[in-house]
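Researcher: Please translate sequence to structure tokens.
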Amino acid sequence: MVLGGAKVADKLPMVETLLTVADHLLIGGAMATTFVAATGHPVGTSLLEGDEAAARSYLAKAKASGVDLRLPTDFVVASQRSRAGEVTVVASDQIPSDQMALDIGPETASAFSATLAQARTIFWNGPMGVSEIPAFAAGTLAVAKAIADCPGFTVVGGGDTAAAIRALGFTECDFGHVSTGGGASLEFLEGKPLPGLAALEADPVTAGPAAV
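Model: Translation complete:
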């Protein structure tokens, strides 16, 4: 499972269930800085959302259950989220106070890619950084390429993720399935009922094509 992007407050509660499903949970995007902050390291002016106490508890649960919950070891940082300004790479525990993490670093991208190459099933929700800006797109590009090259079944979920892969030159044919329903796909993995599927399961005859 690869989690990134923003909307951390919405995605973070799902991590507990995902820990019972995934062998590896690779964290990037704004969710990564929330976890890094939860470990007590400075994150500068990076976007922070969600419950840091919950993030700490998930790290402990992952360790206890043997799940590989992986945080970035380095970040691409800058003083502002724009095309202008100096961009540097720093260790994940060394983000300067006046800088923000805007992409996973090259070391992290390489490590994530190596893990994804061995996977048999991959669910990906959320870019690894601000991928619409070229200076902060390398992490998302590396992860997208690793997932596209993976021989296993791959699912890309979420409007931002789908837009990112298209902007980076990939097509839907490069993945097993691409859905704009990011939150819905995560809820499906959680085991929550989805209204459309529930309607079909309740009355498959009247809900079928013949009834349209």
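Researcher: Any highlights?
Model: The first strand starts at residue 2 and ends at 3.
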